Amino acid sequence: MENGKGLLLDPGGMEIFPPVLSTISREIKMDDIEILFCSHQDPDICSSLSLWFGVCKNMKVYVPSIWSLFIPHFGSDRTLYQIPDAGMTLPLGGSDELQLIPAHYCHSSGNFSLYDPTAKILFSGDIGAALLPKDNSGIFVEDFDRHVQYIEGFHKRWMPSKTAKNQWIERVRKLDINMMCPQHGAIYKKAEAEKFLDWFEELEVGSAENI
Ligand code: FE
């Protein structure tokens, strides 16, 4: 939220729309949601799009430019704003602080991370995502070395380009990050986020071995 105006970031699939709507409604009026941002095109990111259009009358939707002809298939009769490949800032509540950092091919071919320089939070989408066992209910990554078992297979399979991955790492190393919040799994605090970047830099990706 910024000056009472809200942004929905990767609001999710249509199957979770009711609980997400009910939770968000406790914090903000739907008419005050100015922006819906889709980091990429996956159904778990934005198949709920048409339902959000139904309740948020003043909302502008921003999507990666190369997905602007695909995402409307989730149901959209309104204009989608295209994010250029180089990224941009998002205008929210009269401010334009929020930065969209290019994260192409990590894993989607048109993909962005969102950085909030005030909160110093990097919303990293599928980068850093973990497939946690059901009995792991921790919000934060407590022990990165132990956490690797939950992220390694996912990153090897879903990150197709070593070059693109390392370009993203170079970009985000310039940011002051207090927390890195991926779309799935657990949140990385500062020290764990740094360990993740070091680990990710060394990781061999884009290999078809063992498939
Ligand atoms: Fe995805």
Question: Could you characterize what this model shows?
Answer:
With 211 residues, the protein is α/β, with parallel strands linked by helices. The chain has two domains: 1-81, Metallo-beta-lactamase, Chain A (4-Layer Sandwich), CATH 3.60.15.10; 115-211, Metallo-beta-lactamase, Chain A (4-Layer Sandwich), CATH 3.60.15. Helices cover 28% and strands 22% of the residues. The protein is built from six helices and ten strands. Strands 5-6-7-8-9-10 form a six-stranded mixed sheet. Strands 1-2-3-4 form a four-stranded parallel sheet, with no helix packed on it. The radius of gyration is 17 Å and the shape is globular. The N and C termini lie far apart (43 Å). Fe (iii) ion (FE) is lined by residues 40, 42, 107-108, 126.
| Beta-strand proportion | 15-25%
Under the CATH scheme, the architecture of the largest domain is 4-Layer Sandwich
Number-wise, the strands total 10
Name the helicity range: 25-40%
Q: What is the CATH top level name of the largest domain?
A: Alpha Beta
Strand arrangement in the largest pleated sheet: 5-6-7-8-9-10
Could you give a quick summary of the protein structure above?
The chain is α/β, with parallel strands linked by helices and 211 residues long. It folds into two domains: 1-81, Metallo-beta-lactamase, Chain A; 115-211, Metallo-beta-lactamase, Chain A. 28% of the residues lie in helices and 22% in strands.
